[in-house]
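Input record (one chain):
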Amino acid sequence: MNIIENLEKVHVAVVRDKVVPNEAGQKGELGKAIGKLAVKAIMGGLKSDDWKTYMSLFADNAEQLKLLTEETQGEDSYLPEARAYIVSNAVCAAGTNTFTAARVDTQLINIVNNNPDNPPLAKPLIIPPL
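The corresponding structure, as predicted from the sequence alone:
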């Protein structure tokens, strides 16, 4: 999947979680958990392990994660804003659907896992499939 698809997958999972109870019979816990990870990421900053952990929710491979966690000279101008929205949307929207893709530039749709040598990433939370 690409980054935009991953953002949308998380959004759908959070919305479902608000309606359908988890194994413990609770609702809305996924959005809260994602919001907590986002706060840690913001407090730690772009170069922190907390930032990397949070952004791994939306990356399927090391290439995508690098794009979300590392500034590079000459990078596309939309990337800093996209990173900021991805992390801030989860904080201000944790109770209102965590629409993590809000205002994120759709150019991120082009970053997909086409390299079979690029293994999938471990995730800090389980995001149910669509």
